[in-house]
Amino acid sequence: MTSTMMTDTTTTDEVTAASAPSGGPTASAPVSTARLTADERRRQLIECALDIAERGGIGAVTVRAIAREAGISLGMVHYCFASKEALLTEMAERLVYELSTASQMVLAAVGDAPQAHGQAGLREFVRIGLKAMWSIVEANPNRRLLTYEIATHALRLREAGSPDAGDVVGEQYRIMDREVTAFLVECADRTGMVWTEPVASIAHRSLSIVDGLVLRWLVDRDTDAIALGLAEVANAIAAKAVES
Questions:
Q1: Less crowded by CB within 10 Å, the N or C end of the chain?
Q2: pTM for the whole thing?
């Protein structure tokens, strides 16, 4: 699927303004004087695009908006990203990285907890992990909402013939599955428990439930209902293990 980022009507003068000599055409946004490598500039623009999308949704991410946010020319944005799909794919990859980092924080929270044993201990460790996960969601709900929005958009692109976009979303969930599986293995090892079902399957189903809870909270912001739901998830997960 071929689709350029020309959401805005961009003139030749605007595209070439970044390289124009003094006294030449003026860019529509002030050109940044920071000397960044190509990779640094791409990372900067991805963060700008994510910030814009958090405030106004995917539809607000345009060449002009990114250039204004970053303080650079329109031409520089076009130089870094050939299409909006390419930019959205890298935005999704950035969110995948953030999710992986958040999962590692959850593991660390359990690692810092006092030693516990048996099913009660396992349930407490799972509860601690879910609480740590929830604190990340609640601290920045717009980021989580954006994760759902980009995932939906990427799936639409996949259906329209752009498989790379869908692959990024698939990788997002594969990473989450792996991280939660590792978390559950750690919890069982620390409490002397063994899982009665394949732990990867438990992780997959648990994530689906938590995903639904988070989406529901984004709709109604009922924190009490979320607390109850997460407690039920912790109980259900712990019930799938027995003492070794």
A1: C
A2: 0.75
